[in-house]
Amino acid sequence: MLTGQHPAIAPVEAPGIASLAVRDLLNGSHQAGMVLAVVQGTIIAEFPGARREPRVIAISAPDAVRLPNAVIASIPASTARTIATPDAQLPGATKDAKTTKAIRSAVSAGGGAICVGGLTVQARRWWDPSPVFGPLSRGRLDRGAAVLSRVCRQAVPGPALADHDGPRILASCCATADLAGAVEQAERLVGLGAGIVPAGDGVLCGLLLALRLLGGAIPGGTRAVWLAEWLSAAVTGYASERTTPLAASLLYCASRGQAPAEVAAVLRGVAGEDPVEPAAHRLLTARTAAALATADLAWGLVAGCRAAQALSVS
Questions:
Q1: What is residue 14's three-state secondary structure?
Q2: In which element (H, E) is residue 81 found?
Q3: What pairs with residue 12 in β-bridges?
Q4: 19 in helix, strand or coil?
Q5: How far, in Å, CA of 210 to CA of 310, rounded?
Q6: Strand positions, DSSP E, the chain
Q7: Which pTM value belongs to this model?
Q8: Strand 113-116, strand 119-127: pairing
Q9: Strands 42-46 and 113-116, sheet pairing
Q10: Is 4 exposed, middle or buried (0-12, 13-18, 19+ CB in 10 A)?
Q11: What is the C-alpha to C-alpha distance for residues 283 and 83, in angstroms, rounded to an integer?
Q12: Beta bridge partners of 120
């Protein structure tokens, strides 16, 4: 072992449930990568040479939020601890976006698996991060959004950007079809905030998902989807240079309608397919400190629901 190298990890194999969003990366030719962070048992690995986003994969425990770029696997806590080394800056992060873990282990993806040091997670099953909704009435959307908004207002802790004008102005611009204003405000939110997924990116992910997925289901929702297309182009352009690698991948996923499983459950509730309130509480209390500020994400969902309703034709 070379001096200063991290200790070798004992070989561990684990079956995984992988998102279809990362199928090409896992099933393609072998890609070398790097582990960016291990936070609360979630291993976050980047593959800079991948041809398309998402270039980041999150290996998460079954009880963690199921991100749209996740592989879910039960990994021994001792294995995750062995992978990580403390007190490092996340590569590619904004100056305020720090994490307590960074990795020296070798990483590769291909052949249906992702390997981190001695850990191999093989994709045995797949899940679809792109929910599809049937026809949605404006009244149903209004009632669901009202419940979601109430739950969000009661959340503790609240949104990290609660005192920032950007999300409020963005919501207003979206609801009034002010394209120029919405694009300007959205671009300002990219990378805004601390953490491995800055709060501004969380707001944008929620907004894009609600606009695209619910706007596409409501009669006359063409303008909402059109707005989502414009905002997606604005926030993903140069995202890798403006925010963290994980946040950039999540923005790309949201631009395609690929949602965390907990967000899809909330949107199903808003659409009247399931109760809204339990799903919203699960999202807001989920174990996500490693990846996502759920209060800001939920606020973005509310803004997107309201905009989709305002932009639809009665």
A1: strand
A2: helix 77-83
A3: 119
A4: strand
A5: 13
A6: 12-19, 31-39, 42-46, 56-60, 70-72, 84-86, 101-103, 106-110, 113-116, 119-127
A7: 0.89
A8: antiparallel
A9: unpaired
A10: exposed
A11: 28
A12: 13, 115
Of all helices (H) and strands (E), which one includes residue 294? helix 294-311
What pLDDT score does 38 carry? 85
Most confident of the ranges 10-19, 153-162, 185-194:
185-194
Give the per-residue pLDDT at 104.
53
Q: What is the pLDDT of residues 98-150, one digit of tens each?
A: 343 444 568 999 999 999 988 999 999 999 999 999 899 999 999 999 999 99
CA angle 283–142–231, rounded 5-degree value: 70
d(CA 171, CA 65): 25
Coil, helix or strand at residue 275: coil
Please give the Cα distance from 91 to 246 (Å, whole number): 10
C-alpha to C-alpha distances, 73 to 32, 59, 113, 197, 231, nearest whole angstrom: 21, 7, 12, 21, 33
